[in-house]
Amino acid sequence: MSTRWRGRLGVGGAAVVLAGSLVSCGDGSAATGTPTLNWYVNPDNGGQQAIAERCSAASGGAYAIDVSILPSDAAQQREQLMRRLAGNDTSIDLMSLDPVFVPETSEAGFLAPVPEELQRTFSEGVVAGAVQGASWKGELVAAPFWANTQLLWYRKSVAEAAGLDVSRPVTWQQLVEAAQGQGTAIGVQGQRAESMTVWVNAMIASAGGRVIENPDAKGPDIRLGIDGDAGRAAADVMRSMARAGVTGPGVDNRDEAATANLFQQGGAAFMVNWPFVYAQGKAAAEGGTMDRAVFEDYGWTTYPAMDAATPAAPPLGGIDIGVSAFSENRDLAFEAVRCIVSEENQASYMVSDGNPAALEAVYDDPQVQEAYPMYDTIRSSLQAAAPRPQTAYYNEVSQGIADQWQPVSSVDGSTPAQSQEYIEQVLRGEKLL
Q1: Is the pLDDT of residue 106 over 60?
Q2: Complete DSSP assignment for 235-277
Q3: Which helix (H) or strand (E) holds 11?
Q4: Mapping DSSP to helix (H, G, I), strand (E, B) and coil, where does residue 69 land?
Q5: Which of the four, 54, 147, 229, 315, has the lowest number of CB atoms within 10 Å?
């Protein structure tokens, strides 16, 4: 999520505690009389701060953007923002939102409507999944900034030894057989967290199903599609991996960063993960903490398919920029958003922080292509990617999946039905998460 799923929205702590927990990167512009826009961002490598400085300078004194960094934990991010917004906090102008929290934030009335003249500006040339993720009830409510997706990463030497033809779509079953035959593992994210929902949703979507059939519905009226052929196919993949012994060590506590390290250190020759792993591997090779030959053995292709006849629907992540409904500088905030999500800034952010752009044109940028030689695979993956369930009750659905599909070794043919029943009970108020 996020990121990878690192930076997302989250919740946590009372208002007086929250203020002290945020890291502010302001420039003191308020003292000069220049209006200050407060932008709450997910943790990154400093790319959003750099964009804030560029856009502040480009505004010619119209505004200055002050960046506050949210916690790295997704749930804490969401909680902090939601509690502040619920209190009509006017100190928030701009928010970096994970797409999965856009419906909840919009449904609660916390997002300022995107002006009609900017609707096209924020959606034209943007990959379809990113537009969908920034929309709620058929209306664009935030601006797509970057649009992450997972790829299948592999060690070229191991794939060749296994006879795996990566020039064609690879299935999960083929991966299991290749990993088992070569005595290696498949790096997946099996921890009881958002990353588990990312995996389960991608497999269900790739099998032609949907976790939620009617996303606009109220909690008790939501129809889930977990207990169906697609859900059982997802469970079969997990069970197959566990039985073959190819999940690798510590799968039930493994997030994206741990999976990347496992792959980098040779504990897994195959991995599903976000594109940040390439920059991480390159830095390790250049820094001497990983043999350069290992990095040169990195290969990539599109996300694993559920079967050879059906293209995969890879995970979709990223960040959208929302303007708070309680901002006292809405017009200036939307002008700042226009600058933040410009093609130039999306390209520079992809190069500096490794987060794929939402604008397709960015993938034609020579600097992007040089930094990410798999740029075309990323673009193709984004075009085929499926968002996670869009619903104002996402937290309940996501946590319910994470609770019921873990540990990985316990997943079997009954898991889809059990998890669906559990989530339905939560949505009806009959159970607590």
Answers
A1: yes
A2: HHHHHHHHHHT-S-TTGGG--HHHHHHHHHTTS-SEEEE-THH
A3: none
A4: strand
A5: 229
324: tokens are: 């708070």
CB burial of 352-389 (b: ≥16 within 10 Å; e: otherwise) equals bbbbbbbbbebbebeebeebbebbebbbbbbebbbbbb
Instruction: Determine the 3-state secondary structure of 80 from DSSP.
Output: helix
- In tens, the pLDDT along 2-49 reads 333 333 333 222 222 233 345 555 554 545 589 999 999 999 999 999
Nearest to 3 by CA among 74, 53, 88, 57: 74
pLDDT of residue 19: 34
Give the whole-angstrom CA distance, residue 433 versus residue 313. 28
Does the N-terminal peptide bond of residue 115 adopt cis geometry, omega within 30 degrees of 0? no
Where do the H-state alpha helices sit in 148-210? 156-161, 172-182, 194-206
Tokens 């070794």 — which residue? 409
CB 9 within 8 A of CB 79: no
> How are the residues of the chain apportioned to helix, strand and coil, as percentages rounded to the nearest 5?
50, 15, 40
Domains and CATH numbers, the chain: 15-148+317-384 (3.40.190.10), 151-301 (3.40.190.10)
User: How many helices (H) and strands (E) are present in the chain, helices listed first?
Assistant: 19, 12
pLDDT tens profile 121-145 = 999 999 998 999 999 999 999 999 9
Residue count (the chain): 433
Quick: pLDDT tens for 235-273.
999 999 999 999 999 999 999 999 999 999 999 999 999
Indicate the pTM of the whole model.
0.88
Residue with tokens 């939601």: 82
Structure tokens at 195: 């990353």
